[in-house]
Design goal:
Length: 81
Amino acid sequence: MAEAPIREGAARTGCPMDKLYATEEREGDTRANGGEVPGIAREALSVFSREEWTSAKRATMFDAWVVAARKPSDGSGSVLR
């Protein structure tokens, strides 16, 4: 079975890859079997709609979790308020 770095397939098919990760030293050199693996649009992989992500992304960032984890519990079980 054919094998190639995913960055080559992404370039050939126009599948977007974050430039920071598309390098040989990072995920761009990950080998893919079969040669022609279709890319999937980021929007198709998201569990949030664009509007939901816009309003929720701040709460999902690591620094927001750290701040929330350091707050005393109110007993509700909710970490992010």
